[in-house]
Amino acid sequence: MKNLDYGVIGNCRTAALISKGGSLDWLCFPDFDSPSIFGKILDEKKGGCFSFEFEGEYKCSQKYLQGTNILCTTFELPDGSFEVMDFMPRYKTGDESNDYYLPAEIYRYIRLLSGKPSFRINYSPAPDYARASTVHSIGRNYIRTSSAENERDSVYLYSSLNLESILEKKNFTLTGEEFVLISYNQKLVDIDIRRVYLEYSRTKVYWLNWVNRSKKYKTFESEVERSMLILKLMSFQPTGAVLAALTTSIPETIGEVRNWDYRFCWLRDGSMSIETLLSMGHRGAAKRFISFVKGIIHSKGDKFQIMYGIRGERKLTEFTLDHLEGYEQSKPVRIGNAAYEQKQNDSFGYLMDVIYKYYLYFPGTLDEIEDMWEVVKNIVRSVSAEWRSPDQGIWEIRYSMSHYVFSKVMCWVALDRAVKIAELIGKHNYADSWAKEASEILNDVHENGWKEQIGSFSQTYSNLELDSSLLLMEEYGFIDGSDPKYVSTVKAIRDNLLHNGLMYRYKAEDDFGKPTSAFTICTFWLIRALFVIGEKEQASAIFNEILKYSNHLGLFSEDLDFETKRQLGNFPQAYSHLALINTVELFSEEKMRSRFIRP
Q1: Which H or E run contains 38?
Q2: pTM higher than 0.70, yes or no?
Q3: Residue 399, CB half-sphere, CA atoms under 13 Å: how many?
Q4: SS3 of 254, please?
Q5: Which residues are 307's β-sheet partners?
Q6: Across-strand partners of 112?
Q7: 23 half-sphere exposure, CB direction, 13 A CA radius
Q8: Which of 171, 342, 506, 530 would staple 539 via disulfide (CB 3.0–4.6 Å)?
Q9: Are residues 322 and 356 in contact, defined by beta-carbon separation less than 8 angstroms?
Q10: CA–CA distance, 591 with 160 (Å, rounded to integer)
């Protein structure tokens, strides 16, 4: 049985997954959402990788350099030992906010530890999702690899090791420091070991400084630090977008078809990320995401989507790569995501929550504030027109629509935040009008969403199913944590959806049958809900248990297997790490004194 035992490196432009054994199995160039050049994670034979190979037995271990996104893999062989420092350069180059050096390249910095270890390099890139064969040519100081069908689709490899020997997989005996650099572009400066060490040092200092600016906690400090570093790595510097995950089509359940491309920006993830980034001391990252939101709303007449491309693209056409066998032969492999076309009324709430934070923390010039006010009014008009209608809900049900209770709750959130915005800028007539409609939604949910038969709010108005998303009703301010209905709902959801210490999203049958894996963030939602209603010991016990299910580096994917606890789904998952941080904040005494105080 495989697990997602991968480390992640990146520079806020693209990222790579490196296995516990030091194999580079996923890399998209030049950006997060570009086609892969290494994709072994999606096809063992065709996908392509860059690994180290040895004769006989060897031991391997892996860790991050503390406080950084530099990954260290150590190999212990009979004839010696060495370590590989994997990183993508990232550091400040000037005084302006966007003066960063973040090239599309990855360094594999090889350092001798003892003896004279021998190894071979398996350098097998497969550009464009392995849709064509590859062609290698050796230049003056590099290997150029391109697609046989598109000569311009190329990457460059630079190394202190002999280039012909790399391609021929000959043995190397390590006697000192060596390097391999994979670059999307041909380098205009000479790359030698001194240059590699300079890039390594600059990148190390950048990450250490970034972590040093983060809020610290007495407990769970290492877990929070790693989660923050992963979240930062998953932001796209040019626009401020935050990716949901770095991969596509890692299945929620092995052998099934719930395989999706998550290399996009969902508004619901971003809404939570801003508050997390602000609370952890990273105002700049939060501000960049606000700028991304402003950028995707071009005019007051624009329609709103649940998700966007990392540059603000609206069309995210979904198709399958049928030539790839999929992760553990779980087909299909999907590129793009058709969910962008779905009707999800809950998206109005996330978007307005983001805009409310804009008005609170990052108001721009008068004309910008006026532009955003027009957007606010447009969202309110959309909510007023749509909240009574069915939709496809937070879980993106593909082929049917219902009156989802949580969608109604988030429509209320949209109006509630709109009221607060109107009050902030002195538009009290708007605030009064919108407050009345918000009250109408609230009453409608209590009348149609509450079911005495189950002692809980239900998934939809027309069924008696339970749904983990309902745990968020308190967090978004729809209902008080001490309200008997909320307390009863939390207990009913726990009793119905908690299994082997992990949570189902829901148990109702959907387009693809009944879910069979645990959705990681739902367990964190339950932890918060139990804590809020006073079940603090159980909340703490579940939290301590789920921390054991991260991989060897403390990383979480989207899903977990109920029985084996293996990680499943796209990886790493931003939402899972956001929830971990927010849970530690909840447990913190300092956080509890200020959590519900809003400016």
Answers
A1: strand 36-38
A2: yes
A3: 5
A4: coil
A5: 266
A6: 82
A7: 19
A8: 530
A9: no
A10: 50
Alpha-carbon gap, residue 141 to 187, rounded angstroms: 10
Q: What is the pLDDT of residues 123-147, one digit of tens each?
A: 999 999 999 899 999 998 999 999 8
By C-alpha distance, which of 349, 289, 334 is closest to 476? 349
Give every CB contact of residue 132 below 8 A, 6+ residues apart in sequence.
147, 148, 149, 150
Predicted confidence band of residue 512 (pLDDT cuts 50, 70, 90): low
Q: Return the biggest CA–CA distance within the chain.
A: 79
How far is residue 142's CA from residue 186's CA, in Å, rounded to a whole number? 9
393: left (phi over 0), alpha (psi -120 to 50) or beta: left
CA gap 201, 324 in Å, rounded: 38
212: burial class by Cβ within 10 Å (0-12, 13-18, 19+)?
A: exposed
Angle (CA) 172 173 178, round 5°: 75
Give 372-400 pLDDT, tens digit per residue.
898 899 899 999 999 999 998 888 777 67
- DSSP letter (8 states) at residue 312: -
CA distance 447 to 443: 6
30-35 CB contacts, 8 Å cutoff, 24+ apart: 30/104, 30/184, 31/104, 31/236, 31/310, 32/236, 32/243, 32/246, 32/263, 32/310, 33/263, 33/264, 33/309, 33/310, 35/127, 35/128, 35/129
For 430, the 3-state DSSP assignment is helix
Under 8 Å between Cβ of 501 and 542: yes
Handedness of CA 188, 191, 195, 197 (dihedral sign): positive
Handedness of CA 477, 482, 483, 488 (dihedral sign): positive
CB atoms within 10 A of CB 287: 18
Query: 6-212 has which fold?
Result: Beta-galactosidase; Chain A, domain 5 (2.70.98)
The Cα–Cα gap between 259 and 332 comes to 7
Q: What letters, b where the CB count within 10 A reaches 16 and e where it falls short, cover 473-490?
A: bbbbebbebeeebbbbbb
Residue count of the chain, please give it: 599
Q: Per-residue pLDDT tens for 67-94?
A: 999 999 999 999 999 999 999 999 999 8
Could you tell me the sign of the dihedral formed by the alpha carbons of 453, 459, 460, 462, in that order? negative
Distance CA 505, CA 529 (A): 15
Dist. CA 519–CA 514, nearest whole Å:
13
Q: How far apart are CA 390 and CA 408, in angstroms?
A: 9
DSSP 8-state secondary structure symbol assigned to residue 472: G
Tokens representing residue 177 in the block: 């420091």
Q: How far apart are CA 230 and CA 104, in angstroms?
A: 18
Is 23:49 a contact under the CB 8 Å cutoff? Answer: yes
Phi and psi at residue 387, to the nearest 5°: -65, -25
Average pLDDT, the chain: 92
Which residue carries 């060495």 as its tokens?
82
